[in-house]
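User: Before I run my own analysis I want an independent prediction to cross-check against. Here's the chain; please return only the structure tokens and, at the end, one sentence I can use as a sanity check.
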Amino acid sequence: MKIEVKNLAGKKESDIILSDTVFGVPANDGLVHQVYVAQSANRRSGSAHTKTRDQRRGGGKKPWKQKGTGNARTGSIRNPIWRGGGVMFGPDKSRNFSKKINGKQKQKALAIALSDKVREGKLVVVSSLVIENNKTKKFSDALEALGIDKTVVVGFSQEETPSYRALKNIPRTNGLPAEQLNVFDIANAQYILLSKEAVSGIEERYASKSDKSETI
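Assistant: Structure tokens:
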């Protein structure tokens, strides 16, 4: 697969041939969905919590005697049918939402997600993502020049990481190190923006030694 390499002004500089084992993998929606659901579940904090009757304060004394008052029998003001009582079957912070996913499945799903973006023409490769003085305005202008007008995930190489500061205040833009790209973030974005160096890093991590990108 050959695509253009542009500069931050949106002008073509060269072409790059992408590795087929990373950017040319056939579609498999079922696998991508499975990994997406697992990664989404693993991001849940599980902080929603309601108190049961034993976690409510008070209620140690029986409100009234068992018989002779004409009222229904009750043993605590914190029983679930009383106002201010405990909650039955509510969410509990001890619940674990995490899902396990096989490492090879996760790796293949990532390659499929990247390949899908290439097939859709939504992968944008630039010569460098180093932003002068890490200015947000310059990064915003670069996105406009590259024709990226919707949600985008930006993968930075290690040397480009300081430029992450430039996109923090840009809406619908998510930046992370290239080696941390994942199915969840890719699927939630319309575009992927990478530098040549980031592409090489991804291929170095996932592609076979005989199948690396070449710049033309």
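Sanity check: The mean pLDDT is 90.
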